[in-house]
Fold this sequence. Notes:
Elements: H1 15-26, H2 29-67, H3 80-91
Amino acid sequence: MQRKKMTLRFDLDRPEDRQAWEYLQRLNPASMNKAVLTIINHSERANRVQNMIRSIVREELAAALKQLPVPPVRTEPESDEMDDTIMGFLDNFM
């Protein structure tokens, strides 16, 4: 069996580090390694599930948005009357 070793350091001035350190200190040494491995694996699985959910929601939203009726956008004024009104308003400043 191949084993890998890793060193983990805690900054006890940071509340998150102190909380993790105190949790690990309550465990017996034999279960400490198992607890760390379990936490890492659960976190990784949770991240995968979260990414899957995001992907599904994104796909469903895109499909729903494609089905929405989009009214046409008018790019030209409805009549020359509007142009005359605008130009008349601007003439007041000259």
